[in-house]
Amino acid sequence: MPVEIVPYTDEWPRRFRLLSGSMRAALGNTALRIDHIGSTSVPGLAAKPIVDMQISVADFEPLDAFRLPLEGLGYVFRADNPERTKRYFREPLGEPRTHIHVRQRGSWAELFALLYRDYMRSNADEAERYADIKRMLAEKHRNDQPAYTDAKEPYLWELMRRADRWSQDVGWQLGPSDA
Questions:
Q1: Is the separation of the CB atoms in 130 and 155 below 8 Å?
Q2: Mean pLDDT in the chain?
Q3: So what's the pLDDT on residue 107?
Q4: Has this prediction a pTM greater than 0.85?
Q5: For 59-66, what is the mean pLDDT?
Q6: Which are the contacts of 79, defined by CB distance < 8 A and separation ≥ 6?
Q7: Which of 3, 23, 62, 113 is the most exposed place for a label (fewest CB within 10 A)?
Q8: Buried b / exposed e across 54-87, counting CB within 10 Å, b at 16+?
Q9: 11-170 belongs to which CATH class?
Q10: What pLDDT score does 26 carry?
Q11: What is the C-alpha separation between 110 and 134, in angstroms, rounded?
């Protein structure tokens, strides 16, 4: 599938709200947080048309505590995901692209995603620079998703260094869950 960066659309937060409501009902207190993360969570930021969601849980075990409710909603558990810091689910067949990242509350991976989101929401110039880089790299690596991801990495780490400095300057703290 070609790498495609599209202009921001208000459909992304609407879709998040719709999906997160059904997840909140199905997961109950198992979901300590449900957040819209990634580029589609940043108003105005061009992105791949994939809504990323993060569900924070106290622990990955028992897996069925969140796997069964999410599968009941039609999400597909990707047990072969190599990232050990999350459990990964995808959208039901035929639905718009949605990535669900289940992470442990307080983990570095959980906080990284939320810091990225909050920093980008607070820095429109940074978001525009990142969009320009993503568009350029998508053009260069249109048919090679791994190369596109690898090419973004140096800029993303620089961005997160700036986000870390910003978090210290403003006293960033984790806000309330999105859902």
A1: yes
A2: 97
A3: 97
A4: yes
A5: 97
A6: none
A7: 62
A8: bbbbeebeeeebbbebbeeeebebeeeeeeeebb
A9: alpha beta
A10: 98
A11: 23
**What single letter denotes the amino acid at residue 145?**
Q
Q: Give the CA radius of gyration of the chain.
A: 16
| Residue the block writes with tokens 């990634």 | 38
CA dist list (Å): 13 to 76, 82, 178: 21, 28, 10
Per-residue pLDDT reduced to its tens digit, 162-174: 999 999 999 999 9
